[in-house]
Design brief:
Blueprint (H helix, E strand, L loop, with lengths): L3 H7 L1 E2 L8 E2 L2 E2 L5 H12 L4 E2 L10 E4 L5 H18 L1
Antiparallel strand pairs: 1-3, 2-5, 4-5
Helix pairs in contact: 1-3
Length: 88
């Protein structure tokens, strides 16, 4: 079994933020971030903002790291990524 963190890192390209507690990763394999964000929200109750909100390329999504629940959110997001990779 591959650890969830490894699956998460294999599924997007990291773009270092220029400031603040925000990340704007790009999904690989031309996955649409609108669909991806809706699935994560519906299945794991984790909110990601798709790039369409910013009129940006549709494979990017925004993650904010300022909440006190971030550790739990990342864990649940990791579970989602494990489930996603099992189904592919």
């Amino acid at each position: 079994m591959v650890p969830a963190g490894v699956l998460v890192m294999q599924s997007y390209r990291r773009n270092a933020p220029s400031a603040g507690p925000v990340a704007f990763p790009k999904l690989k394999n031309s996955i649409n971030s609108d669909t991806f964000a809706k699935e994560v929200l519906n299945k794991k109750d984790v909110l990601l903002l798709p790039a369409s909100i910013y009129n940006y390329e549709p494979s990017f999504f925004r993650v904010g790291f300022g909440k006190s629940t971030m550790r739990k959110s990342l864990s649940v997001f990791g579970e989602f990524m494990q489930d996603l990779h099992k189904s592919v």
